[in-house]
Amino acid sequence: MLMCCNILTFPTGVTQCTPAIHANDDRLVLRVTSQPRERIKAQQRAGFRHLTLHPQSFLTAEGEGETLNEDWSMNRLTLGLLLWALSLTVCQGVNLCCSEPCQNRGVCTALGSNDYECDCTRTGYYGENCTTPEFLTWIKVSLKPSPNTIHYLLTHFKGFWNIINNISFLRDGIMRYVLTSRSHFIDSPPTFNADYGYKSWEAYSNLSYYTRTLPPVAEDCPTPMGIAGKKELPDAKVLAEKLLMRRQFIPDPQGTSLMFAFFAQHFTHQFFKSDLKRGPAFTQALGHGVDLSHIYGDNLEKQHKLRLFKDGKLKYQIIDGEIYPPTMKDVDVQMHYPPHVPESHRFAVGHEAFGLVPGLMMYATIWLREHNRVCDVLKEVHPDWDDERLFQTSRLILIGETIKIVIEDYVQHLSGYNFKLKFDPELLFNQRFQYQNRISSEFNTLYHWHPLMPDSFHIEEKDYSYKEFVFNTSVVTEHGINNLVESFTKQLAGRVAGGRNVPEPIMYVSIKSIEHSRQMRYQSLNAYRKRFSLKPYSSFEDMTGEKEMAAVLEDLYGHIDAVELYPGLLVEKPRTNAIFGETMVEMGAPFSLKGLMGNPICSPEYWKPSTFGGSVGFNIINTASLQSLVCNNVRGPCPLASFHVPDVKDTGSMIINSSTSHSGGSDINPTVILKERTTEL
């Protein structure tokens, strides 16, 4: 028996047909059911063909706009053959969940090829498709301002926020709300991965996978985005060249510095470390959070090779009276360097790809110095401690410093808020919160902020092209940490949102990001907007805020609900005078804050002075900042260290890349910049 995907609709209800074709049987079996209108619409969206049977004795194919004028007195065999033929051409085993019928985080389960059910448990909604709000949900949704309204309030009225920032209980209350409201968007424990679009023990327990925020698009869906758009996605290279590649450097209007760009790259690659030998859905960073494996190595063998095993310290070398990382020859750890880099410049650090650019090695050097400095502080207070305890406690302190700097300097800058963010784990001690974290593949994809990079790198009085900058660790020792910090603080980074700002020399990384997203069968940008309680975009112009790129998007994708996550994030219209668009912020902030505050050191069991060697270690964390991190680890006058370019309104005091052409891709070979295993950088 063949299942028919054509649905006969009578004025009084719906008749679903199943032609029974047997050797000696030409009967047409009709099964009459009554279905709600929203279910019929879901079936239509999924590709079902609805046929309305009118008393006037003709059939109308509503979904196709064609009319079949037939004599209703046709014999049953003819009608049966017609419906059977339609069933073969219209759909074979359509999954109704492809149409995303379940709203408001309801879970869709397909029931065969012509039905589904929505699980609305604890969503705050009920009904066929989880669309009817419960009373308390209705009140909450009605009163809650939109994300853009909240963003406007937090980024304006500076005088008001200055008052709030100085009243501790008000500041604490708002910060507690920020942390809980954001982190509750993230499922904990994790729910899906690239191979399991449903709850399973494997998706929970297998740490070698990135988790997934939304399940993959089912393989039996009509289009790559479910039911929307074309049957084939646009060529990744063509897409990137038309919408992502830089024509002219677009500086970030928020005043973001290269100091920020390199911090972002250095910080995130302790937990964004895809195992591309297995596929983009897998990770080598099994700690799934802030564990500083990019400083100490991601396994015990590498950690031991990097350790001095004296006074808790890491190995180092002295160059011109200052501490720098040891070389590969000295510590015998795996690093990625092309053959032309001399042995004396092959520095060895916790992450094998940090020799790529001097900005990464600058931060690696600063954190190496900070670890050894903290060891000296602890040894003075605890002269009886052995090497192991000094090392382990120093690592915990550096984790605390990192989280403090990320929240109060890094996220503070990104947000643009006049409200002053605060790192205080005690704010969550009486809240419903889980101290665990799993890195999501969507978070990894979202964080590909390559538009931050300029066309060239200005250090002291010299400009470095990409060819001169990449894998040139001599820049670190030649200029010194002081001058690198000062120069990177003065140079503007690029704007991320708004499209067409990825430098040509690193375009291939964006292309790979698109290809990897497709391998993992990400849902559309609009699907992720709904997941994070954002209104889906209604048109391409609604997404881009202009007409030209909107027209290109429409030509490539065909439907707004077919736009992919990564390209959508980069072409999305930026917020006013901001580096990002709405989706990037509202989707990225929950991942970030949950990952930071879900760290074990933030739990009631860990967050106490004794964990960090007493009040001295606790104080190092609670007074940490980007500026103090730099000042404690450079010789001589301390340079300004900031994620914001100073005097950003005075263009004479900062460096703006003024190139008006493509970003010099002709003088660099992408296969030399990065091998396949490091395309995330």
TrEMBL record:
Q: List the InterPro entries hit by this protein, alphabetically.
A: EGF, Haem_peroxidase_animal, Haem_peroxidase_sf, Haem_peroxidase_sf_animal, Oxylipin_biosynth_metab
Q: What SUPFAM superfamilies does the database record attribute to this sequence?
A: EGF/Laminin, Heme-dependent peroxidases
In this protein, which residues make up the domain named EGF-like? 93-131
The entry's heme b-binding residues are 450
Reaction equation(s) it catalyzes = (9Z,12Z)-octadecadienoate + AH2 + O2 = (9R)-hydroxy-(10E,12Z)-octadecadienoate + A + H2O; (9Z,12Z)-octadecadienoate + AH2 + O2 = (9S)-hydroxy-(10E,12Z)-octadecadienoate + A + H2O; (9Z,12Z)-octadecadienoate + AH2 + O2 = (13S)-hydroxy-(9Z,11E)-octadecadienoate + A + H2O; (9Z,12Z)-octadecadienoate + AH2 + O2 = (13R)-hydroxy-(9Z,11E)-octadecadienoate + A + H2O
Q: Which UniProt keywords apply?
A: Dioxygenase, Disulfide bond, EGF-like domain, Endoplasmic reticulum, Fatty acid biosynthesis, Fatty acid metabolism, Glycoprotein, Heme, Iron, Lipid biosynthesis, Lipid metabolism, Membrane, Metal-binding, Microsome, Oxidoreductase, Peroxidase, Prostaglandin biosynthesis, Prostaglandin metabolism, Signal
**What's this protein's family per the entry?**
Belongs to the prostaglandin G/H synthase family.
Name of this protein:
Prostaglandin G/H synthase 2
